[in-house]
Amino acid sequence: MADITPAMLMRAYSMGVFPMSEHRDDPEIFWVDPKRRGVFPLDQFHISRSLAKRIRSGIFSVTINQAFDAVVDGCADREDTWINSEIRKLYIALHDRSQAHSIEVWQDDKLVGGVYGVTLGAAFFGESMFSRATDSSKVALAFLIAHLNRSGYLLFDTQFITPHLASLGAIEITRASYHKQLSEAITRSADFTAYSLPSADDVVQRRTQIS
Question: Which domains occur in the chain, in start order?
Answer without folding.
Answer: 35-79+99-210 (3.40.630.70)
